[in-house]
Amino acid sequence: MLFNVWRHIDPLRRYRKNILVIGSEVLMLRSAWTPRLPCCSNSHLTPDLHDVGPGESGTEEPCDNFTDLDLSHCFMGTSLYVRLLLYTRSNPDCGREVAHHRLSSQPLLDLRRPTAFVIHGYRPTGAPPIWINRIVRLLAEQEDMNVIVVDWNRGAANLNYFTAVTYTREAALNLTGFIRTMQEEGASLSSIHLIGVSLGAHLAGFVGANLKGAIGRITGLDPAGPMFTSAAPEERLDPSDAMFVDVLHTDMNSFGLRGAHGYNVSPWRDALVKMGQTKVFFSTTAALPYQKLSYRVDMVTWNQYLRWGVVYIRLHSGRNFTEARIDHKLQRLEQYTSTRLLAQFDEDLQNVQKISVRINTGNIIGPRYKIRLLRIRFTPLERPDRPVMCRFDIIMEENMEVAFRPLPCDSRL
Fold it and tell me: Which residues belong to any copy of the Lipase domain (predicted)?
C-alpha cells in the first residue's frame, strides 16, 4: 500500500469541512432503452418515487437516487449525462439533485460550508457503487458539510472502457462549470475537496487542472492505470492539480496506476499532527515494494548531564547498510532514562552483522559530552521470526558514531 500526499498547509485547516460528493446519474431507469441525453444537461429527470424524504414544508418528497442501469445499457453504450446529488446532515439518506445555476436558491446547499465531491469511476455493469452511501454518511458524520455525489453513470457505464475514459474530460468540464458557479456565489475553492475513485481520480485531476490548482484538496483512491500509466502529468491526476493531493494505492498489480502521484507528507507531518488533522501516519519507500522494515528500539541511558539529541541508526550486512533517522522529536537523555523509538529502514538486510548508532545533539562548540547506553534492544516488528538483537554498556560521545556487533537477547529482558 502506498500513501503519498500534499503541499500547502493553509487549506489543511478546512479539509474536514469541504467535502462535496460527485457520483453518476441518479435515476432508476426501468426500460432497456433510454433516449440519448445531452452531455451536460442540467434538466431534472423523473426520480424513482419509491424513495421519499422530508421536504421543506414537512411533507414527504421523493429522493433523487443514483442512476441504476444494467448490462443492456452497457452493451448498447451510454452517452454522458452528469447529475449532482446533494447530501447533508439534514438529508444523509435522501439525495437532492442540484441544478447548475442559482445555487443560493437551493435550500439544502449552504456555500458557507465546506464541500466534498465524491466521484465514482468506470461502471462496466451499470450498477450503482455499493460504497456510495457509506462514504456519504461518513463524511456527513465527520463535519457539517455539503456532500455532493457526482453521478456520471451514463458515460461510465460502457463495456468499452476507452469510451468511459474519453468521457472523463467532458464530465470534468461539466463539474468545473458547477464549481465556478459556486465560487461566483461565494464559495471558497480552498474549501472544496474532490474524492475520486479509479477513473474518478483522474476526472478530479482534470477539474483541478481546469481551475489552475486552486482546489483545496484532491484525494485519489486507486487511480485507474489502463490508458494512464504512460500518460503525461497533464493527462492524469498530478500533484499540481490542487493545493493538497493525496493518493491511496491498493491495486497496482492489476488495474491501478503505478507510481507516486501525490505529495510527500514528510515536510508537513509535524504540522498535520499539531493541527489535529492526522492522528496516525506511516512511511513508505519511494519505490516498490513501498514498504519499510520497522524495528522497535528500546534504550536505557545513563549520563551525568542532561542532553537532547536526534538518534541515527545504521544496520550493516557486509558492505551493505541502511540508515534510519529517528526525527519525530528530540530525545531526552539523562540519568537512567528509558526511551522507546520506532526505527524504519528502506532496505531489508536479513543478516545484520553490525549496528552503528550516533546521537546528534547539535553541539559544535565546547567539549563533547559522553553518553552511556546501559542497554539497547532491537525488536523486528514485521519479521517476528528474526532474532531480537541487544547490546549492553556502550560508552558514546555526542555527535560521534559508535559501532558494535549485536548479540542475542534474553527473552526476559
Answer: 77-255
